[in-house]
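Issue: copy button drops trailing tokens. Both records pasted manually instead:
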Amino acid sequence: MKYVLNYQKFLEKFEILDSDEPDVKMAKEKMNSLQDQFTEFNQKKASIDDIYKDEKLTPEQVEEKLKQVIGLEEESPDRDRNPFLIEYSNICRLEKEVSNLQDQRTKDKLKIQEFQEELSLLDKEETKLLTKSNINDLNTKLAEKSKKILDMGKEIQQKKTELGQKMNQVQKDINEYTKKIQDEKQK
């Protein structure tokens, strides 16, 4: 019976009755809201992934598509945008930025190789100095991008952990609200 109740809480919404105590009524409303957010998160997570993986989209197009998936702003006073989707889209945005930085690093490495090949073919000392200067500038940019990628990687991991913890906490809240509702039904 315990498993049936746990399964039931994800299948149906709790009916809010006029006769419900204020605590039970609030617990049912919160439970229904959390269930809706979990369901919406699971349905739309793949859409957010697809938006950020599409290399053809400009940043403006990405924002437009995200607005379609997540919503532009609070839909109404009693219905907020899904906080899980918002946090997940921020994580995906950071991952996309890291991917772009890695692409830029690869291009910079190729430029350095080109300059080094060019350097070996040059005769004039002035041109050699200019080429060496370009190589040094690119190496500095490369180091900066590497550090930024590392920092962003740590931030992404932290945000993923926080999102997981938040979702686990919500799961605990769902269980708590279910227990409150069941206790009230037994009275």
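Record 2 (pasted manually too):
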Amino acid sequence: MPASPLVLCESPLTLKVDDGLILRQLTLGDVAEYHQRLNDPTTKLRLQEFLSWPDSEFALEIIRKYIKEAQENFKAGVAMSILGIFRDDQVGGSVNLFNIKKIEGRLEAEMGFFKFFGKNSRKGSLTHPGDVSRCAIALAQYGFKERALDSIVIRCRPENTRANQLAVRIHAHHEASESATESEPAFTRYRLLPEDVGL
């Protein structure tokens, strides 16, 4: 299990995961790059398979509003998003903790993650194999140690093989299969505990 991440900065939250790999809360200075990454055709096609929100082009104003709301939610303690996965100073994806709330006296959060499929300025991959997993573990460790979370829930669409594999790879435990409803599709639910990430 990787060592706990080094906290380089609290505002914006910046975690050093390993050499060259940083997990950092996005700021308004990242709007243009995040806009470019989200609107990459390959990334959009991949996200549209499993998410409802990337159906149209992301305007700069929408991303700016999204990042500002994430900053406000972070200050309010209800979410730790949007944290960008930065490999060699270029954003290659995102890991987030959201819906932070107490349930039966225990502090719980949900985790979401995705990667971008475009190329960096040197025409190479934006991330290395395993970067998303390492960043997910780093954020979980931070959430458990610094924010006193008791558990983290990961909900994946059953057909999203990569997301389910990532949940298993970071040692989350399969908890239940949630049937589809009128408002939501089916999900596979996993739960991550402090001991699962070496704490």
